[in-house]
Amino acid sequence: MIGTFSYAKFLKFLYSVPEAERGWEKSGVNGKLTAPLDWLYGLVRLPGRRIVTPVVNQMREAMATLARLQARSKAVGQQYYFRNSVVDVFRKKENDAAVKIQNWFRGCRVRAYIRHLHRAAIIVQKWWRSYLSRQHYQLVVKLAYYTMKMNLYNEMAVRIQRRWRGYKIRKYCFDYFYLKEYLRAVTETNDAIRDALEEFAEMKEREEKKAALEREEKKRDYQARKMHYLLSTKQIPGIYNSPFRKDPDPWELRLQKAKPLTHQRPRVKQKHSISLTSWLACTSNRSFPRSEILPPINRKQCQGPFRDIAEVLEQRYKPLEPTLREAEPINELKEAREDLRRQEWIRNVNDNMFLPFSSYHKNEKYVPSMHSSSKYGPNSYGCQRFRDENPKKWICPKDFQTVLPSFDLFSKYGKLYSKAGQIV
Amino acid sequence: MSQRQVLQVFEQYQKARTHFVQMVAELATRPQNIETLQNAGVMSLLRPLLLDVVPTIQQTAALALGRLANYNDDLAEAVVKGDILPQLVYSLAEQNRFYKKAAAFVLRAVGKHSPQLAQAIVDCGALDTLVICLEDFDPGVKEAAAWALGYIARHNAELSQAVVDAGAVPLLVLCIQEPEVALKRIAASALSDISKHSPELAQTVVDAGAIAHLAQMILNPDAKLKRQILSALSQIAKHSVDLAEMVVEAEIFPVVLTCLKDKDEYVKKNASTLIREIAKHTPELSQLIVNAGGVAAVIDCIGSCKGNIRLPGIMMLGYVAAHSENLAMAVIISKGVPQLSLCLSEEPEDHIKAAAAWALGQIGRHTPEHARAVAVTNTLPVLLSLYMSTESSEDLQVKSKKAIKSILQKCTYLPALEPFLYDAPPNILKHVVGQFSKVLPHDSKARRLFVTSGGLKKVQEIKAEPGSLLQEYINSINNCYPEEIVRYYSPGYSETLLQRVDSYQPLAN
């Protein structure tokens, strides 16, 4: 027993008597060291350290203690052996019991530890899960909110689109009321056209009937004119005026009204002649323009006191030769002025002269002065002169003519047609 | 004295020639003499007389030749073969107006029979001379030349082009403005013949400013002139949208509508042809016509004529209705449908009936409203009978079938559909039953009516292959009714009931 010196056992023995319950087992063998031998063990365990002199003294004390203890060791050994053999009987039982108790206790301890760990794990997991769930929940809420908003927008958009589509179709693609209006307008136009065409047809009919009647009338009239000799006379009643009839036949009346046809004058066949002045004749280079018949060159003179035909023709076609008095009158200018005035008077709408706008405000009436507006007239002595005009004394308003028109006496001398007065 | 005798011989000969030629000309006016004349060899005798010294003999010989060639194309060919044409053309340039008239008459008479003869005339250079004649100041000469040109241009596009290339069109437009009515007629007819072949020729006529003058003369009281004017305008307008628009811009509406009330049948026909040619191009032009009240005028015109005169008016209604449903509705409210169904039933000719059927189909095919308007007038049975009848021509059958189909596909007016259940052929029955199957599920009154009128019974009797469209329709109709009713009306129900009676054992008390 001593032979195998286990250091740990030795220490245990050393400390088993007074300080078994110090609890340094808790911290194990290498745990906290108690005060008196602290420094020793610290020393022993750290062999590399240098030993300081107060420490050597203490070491000597320790060695002394150790020798004392070693002396006691034999007794201790015996005691030890004795105690071990006494308790050996109970040893297994106590050991078992101790094991059991330790077992259970360890179990409790482990269970408590596990429980503790459970709780800790649960708390950790709880917190972690709640965190995750909250995140997830926030996502879900966000999504739900977003979906709700989008649904709302979609619904509103559908409402707008519904209204717009209905409006568009009804107004632009197929406007039912416009179609109805259009069809009504078409019916109205049709009726109007039908009426107009009926009227037109009726008018045409009437015109035709009228024309037919007129033709009949003309024919009958012509017949009556041809048969006018069948008119009844006083002696002989005509065929349409039979004495046995109450009224004469209408043809009788017609014959009375008709004018007999005259003999047909032999119609002079108009020769197709193209005058020289007609331009159409010149266009076609194939047709030859024919002129009027000219008189033959040599013609026998008519018997009688006739003048030369050339002279006659000359006189006949002589142009007008006005006298000087007519051709250039002296009051030509005055008459021209009068003419112009007359023409302007015809043309004017208003005879009043058009005054300029500047004289618009000049509408004040002239107020004559007192001197000239009294009934006692002005003194003629200082005012009237010998050469002044006095219109009241005039016998006629026209002035003397100073220039008289000429008269021609000898302008036709030698140019007259008649041979009167000519020396034979 | 001997000189006198010699001159007398010549005078006698001249008298004889004159007499001969005048008699031949007179005889040639009567058709029965012409065979004899031909056999007697009149052509070879007349030919040298064309070169006679005396102008009257020349003219009368030309006149006689013209009358002979006018009669039939053998004689015309003989004229061509006898090399008479170059001589005529040569002397046309130099002679007086009577000769020109007669020579133009010969050319016209030869050119009217066939394109080959007309080509022969063109080949001998007659066109230039005829155009020179158009410039003559005598209206008779102008008329004869314009007539000849018109007859030449009538045959085909190449000859028309030759006439146009000779520069005839501006002169014809000038002729139209002349005061003589006969000349105006002929010039209008010549312009119509030129412009009818192709759009380019019509454009040439339009470029010469013809439209304005033609449009002014619509108001002229002469009926024959109006015929030609309207025909010319319709030949111009028929080629393209631009030409039709130009014709419309000349402000013919609503004046043209008065022509629809004219006494002369052909004026009415040509006026409705003009309106048809304008309406067929675009919806806008049809709209213009509708807005001017043209539809009502045309419908009245259809009501007042018979036979072929009606045909352009009927086609015009069809064209207008074909463009859009609004225009078809406008035709309906102008009371067009009763008129068209009247045409359909009372006209004897197949092509007019076919046109009326087509027009009705175009009106009714747009929406159920339109189909109802057509069905209400009881035209569908008439169309069906036309389709089924063996006497109708193929064209009529095809058109009435199309019309029936297109109307039925939109028709929801059940009283009109019911008769179809009884006597329609299977391919039409399918559509009828289909329409019923669309309407019946939604309308309870209609269902009741369907049962009481015996329609349900008839539907049960229809045999259809299972899985076909007809069977599906029948099933959907049967689904609208409770099962008992369907069973009640199914064929052979009475037998099954009696069988049940036979097999029933009364309860023994």
Automatic annotation (TrEMBL), chain A:
<keyword id="KW-0112">Calmodulin-binding</keyword>
<keyword id="KW-0963">Cytoplasm</keyword>
<dbReference type="GO" id="GO:0005516">
    <property type="term" value="F:calmodulin binding"/>
</dbReference>
<feature type="coiled-coil region">
    <location>
        <begin position="179"/>
        <end position="221"/>
    </location>
</feature>
<dbReference type="Pfam" id="PF00612">
    <property type="entry name" value="IQ"/>
</dbReference>
<keyword id="KW-0677">Repeat</keyword>
<dbReference type="InterPro" id="IPR027417">
    <property type="entry name" value="P-loop_NTPase"/>
</dbReference>
<dbReference type="InterPro" id="IPR051185">
    <property type="entry name" value="ASPM"/>
</dbReference>
<dbReference type="InterPro" id="IPR000048">
    <property type="entry name" value="IQ_motif_EF-hand-BS"/>
</dbReference>
<protein>
    <submittedName>
        <fullName>Spermatosis associated 17</fullName>
    </submittedName>
</protein>
<dbReference type="GO" id="GO:0005737">
    <property type="term" value="C:cytoplasm"/>
</dbReference>
<keyword id="KW-0175">Coiled coil</keyword>
UniProtKB/TrEMBL annotation, chain B:
<dbReference type="GO" id="GO:0005874">
    <property type="term" value="C:microtubule"/>
</dbReference>
<dbReference type="GO" id="GO:0015630">
    <property type="term" value="C:microtubule cytoskeleton"/>
</dbReference>
<dbReference type="GO" id="GO:0008017">
    <property type="term" value="F:microtubule binding"/>
</dbReference>
<keyword id="KW-0966">Cell projection</keyword>
<dbReference type="GO" id="GO:1990138">
    <property type="term" value="P:neuron projection extension"/>
</dbReference>
<dbReference type="GO" id="GO:0005930">
    <property type="term" value="C:axoneme"/>
</dbReference>
<protein>
    <recommendedName>
        <fullName>Sperm-associated antigen 6</fullName>
    </recommendedName>
</protein>
<keyword id="KW-0677">Repeat</keyword>
<dbReference type="InterPro" id="IPR016024">
    <property type="entry name" value="ARM-type_fold"/>
</dbReference>
<dbReference type="GO" id="GO:0001669">
    <property type="term" value="C:acrosomal vesicle"/>
</dbReference>
<keyword id="KW-0206">Cytoskeleton</keyword>
<dbReference type="GO" id="GO:0097228">
    <property type="term" value="C:sperm principal piece"/>
</dbReference>
<keyword id="KW-0493">Microtubule</keyword>
<dbReference type="Pfam" id="PF00514">
    <property type="entry name" value="Arm"/>
</dbReference>
<dbReference type="GO" id="GO:0005576">
    <property type="term" value="C:extracellular region"/>
</dbReference>
<dbReference type="GO" id="GO:0046847">
    <property type="term" value="P:filopodium assembly"/>
</dbReference>
<dbReference type="GO" id="GO:0003351">
    <property type="term" value="P:epithelial cilium movement involved in extracellular fluid movement"/>
</dbReference>
<comment type="function">
    <text>Important for structural integrity of the central apparatus in the sperm tail and for flagellar motility.</text>
</comment>
<dbReference type="GO" id="GO:0007288">
    <property type="term" value="P:sperm axoneme assembly"/>
</dbReference>
<dbReference type="InterPro" id="IPR011989">
    <property type="entry name" value="ARM-like"/>
</dbReference>
<keyword id="KW-0970">Cilium biogenesis/degradation</keyword>
<keyword id="KW-0963">Cytoplasm</keyword>
